[in-house]
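Reviewers of the previous submission asked for a worked example of the structure-prediction workflow described in the proposal, so we include one complete record here. The input consisted solely of the amino acid sequence. No template or homolog information was supplied to the procedure at any stage.
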Amino acid sequence: MQPGHNGWKLVKPHGYLFSILKEEDGSGLKPMDAEQLREQAHKMVDFIADYYKTIENFPVLSQVEPGYLGKLLPDSAPTYPTTLEHVLNDVQHKILPGVTHWQSPNYFAYFPSNSSIAGFLGEMLSAGINIVGFSWITSPAATELESIVLDWLAKALFLPQDFLSNGKGGGVIQGTASEAVLVVLLAARDKILRTVGRSALPKLVTYASDHVHSSLLKACQIGGLDPELCRLLKTDSSTNFALSPDVLSEAISNDIASGLIPFFLCANVGTTSSTAVDPLPALAKVTKTNNIWLHVDAAYAGSACICPEYRHFIDGVEEADSFNMNAHKWFLTNFDCSLLWVKDRSALIQSLSTNPEFLKNKASEGNMVIDYKDWQIPLGRRFRSLKLWMVLRLYGLEGLRAHIRNHIALAASFEELVVQDARFKVVTPRTFSLVCFRLLPPPNSEDNGNKLNHDLLDLVNSTGSVFITHTVLSGEYILRLAVGAPLTEVRHVNAAWQILQEKATALLENL
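From that input alone, the workflow returned the following structure tokens.
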């Protein structure tokens, strides 16, 4: 034996380099040892718990400059292992400064991405078991639990029976809403092409409002559809930026007259910009008349619809072909966990199924089971239903409803603060827990206050004490404050408003 770096010993039995045998300080990790796991995992849980205890001490929005981490870390991988303590020290001093803290109670940007104790425990259990559940046979519990919890939630949302797994449809967990819209777009594409012929691909037209998520256009690009035929139909304040059925009907009529083939509409319940809600019943009449696949994207706002007072926002979903919500946004389920229901699972399977010899088995060949590999883009998939199941079990529907209602109440309190300050205005009616507002410019403003509000956003975020984002509605630069972090309380909302007021005062005084 010869001493190696950091106290490690190299062993050369029979003249050959065999391996690193052990570390004298006792920190060497085996690939998976139960007692080592117990010891090291306790340290990691303590580190994470301490992180949450001190999360308010970090700047919400990372204040580092591009390329900062390359100056702090070596330019090549280590040859020899180190201790977990050394790694966590680097996390504390090198990694966390470059983290934007999505779970901070002062995080009000984009939409929330909830974590929770139940979700974390489910994620830990999934990582520990570490199955790859692409087919039923690879772990029957993974497939069957997924079907069960998706049925639970379908019933909690009062989705139509067609979306339950005991019929022709069912639910599946995707990674993100971007994946969900992609798989249903491909299913809709292939369904129409089986009727009109594959040569008609360049004629297929997709529709949505101009505030649909950018993932729809990406899905069209991936699906080989002409991006020019992705119709993003103009909305305005007269409909609170929801898609007008009349505008949709006119666009469809014009496209049909031009020899094109309308085939897909992505309707929104809670747009990213302003949480606009498209009128599903009226839009469904248009799509049904024209044989168009109707997909409902409720990635953010779908969670709120488990509350009876918000369920009416998805009235009309019974006419949809597919429906999506992100449990990882507002449902206390760690990222990633995007829930997709379809009325006709065969449409997905016909587009996405492959059946190589090495995957064949009795249960699948006998059509006795669901193989979720045929409902998604990748083959591999994690045991994501575990964390959703644990969230539902450990909080219950009433606990989740209380969580959502609390955030909506906090957003309502912020909205009232904005209304009381005559220098600001609320731009669109608040529907869920997002408030869209702006600082009013002086009468002589050349750009209607767009630069003023852009500067206000930068000043607020540069404090590190709060993080908000923006959108543009009818040409106006709008500030967005979305309440949704699990630790957010009324004091955090009030503190955010105080910072906004202070920075607004400074800007206006310098005009």
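The two ends are 74 Å apart (CA to CA). We consider this example representative of the routine output the project will generate in years two and three.
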